[in-house]
Amino acid sequence: MKPRPLLTQALIQPETLSGLSLKDWDLLIRQARHANLLGRLAYRLTECHLLSQVPEQARAHLESALGVAQRQTQAVQWEVNRIVQALEQLQAPIILLKGAAYIIQQLPTAQGRLFSDVDILVPKPQLEAIELALKIHGWITTHHDEYDQRYYRTWMHELPPMRHLTRETLLDVHHTILPETARYHPDPQQLLNAAMPVAGYGDRVKVLAPTDMLLHSATHLFHEGELNHGLRDLSDLDSLLRHFSAQDAAFWEKLIERAKQLDLTRPLYYALRYTTMILDTPVPPTTLRAAQVGAPSWITRQWMDALFRRAFQPPHPSCEDWLTKPALWMLFVRAHWLKMPPWLLIRHLFHKAFISPKDPNI
Predict the structure, then answer these.
(1) What is the pTM of this model?
(2) Could you tell me which residues are beta bridge partners of residue 140?
(3) 1: in domain
(4) CB-facing half-sphere around the CA of 30: CA atoms within 13 A
(5) How many beta carbons lie within 10 A of that of residue 131, not counting itself?
(6) Running DSSP on this structure, what letter comes out for residue 119?
(7) For labelling, which of 20, 190, 192, 254 has a CA lying 20 to 30 Å from the CA of 123?
(8) Backbone dihedral angles phi then psi of residue 206, each to the nearest 5 degrees
(9) Which residues pair with 170 in a beta bridge?
């Protein structure tokens, strides 16, 4: 097995970076920037009291990334407040997902992380009223093609992405965590029922329960078709697993049982397999054995290892081989195969390839 990329090793053991040459630091910074992990690398070094020991030329990039991440954190907090204000006349709870949830709970996963949008989960029966309220407060749809609108509203797990007219921030409004045509069908009501209120917001703003937050992150990653941020998202899982297991001794047992309840044992299996394989996440052997309930066949596992080992490398030429691009393409096809039945997949791909106009906002 070839040695780990410099970035992966740095995330696991930042103390090993003390002997790097300037040339090595240059490569590490490039790998981290391409992987959208420069801020997280800077936070890891700060956490270990090592940032001051980094050569000045490299330290300037790391400190800048921390500053950008901090400004984005403030922007997301402001955006959450605007969303709450826009929906305050409705009785629907707002469940923050992914990055916004990490920030609002001040989880270690948020430290140094960059964010491109805000994701929320709301009850499907109130989706129309929520969309109208958001439009009144300046959010507009980004997909104007009639086919795309029908595609999202009929088959997907979310509204077409929305962008604010003046702030140009992006908002994804979900009513469940997987498309309704997908192979797995986690019950969104179970997620809503178990959601936890966020201090300072009453019952209006909530986040998923720890097990559900982990399972959603895993489900999103292992159903994702474009894995240019694959290592960053795997690093999110690593951070969440370390944090939640340290907070709750029963977390691992609860996680396995919750995956069974939500029909998400397969994405949990992959999450535990690849966080331990790529990032040395400390998962108890008993949990790994219990997670085998979601394991695919031996031949599928070999294929997935070959594909995901490449997808979870930093997206930089120094980490690629001649099979990287074919692997990413096969994972793209796999993601669509999991999201919709063959007849719908063929129709959708044909329409997107030959009929849909090329909308720059899509």
Answers:
(1) 0.92
(2) 163
(3) no
(4) 11
(5) 18
(6) E
(7) 254
(8) -135, 170
(9) 163
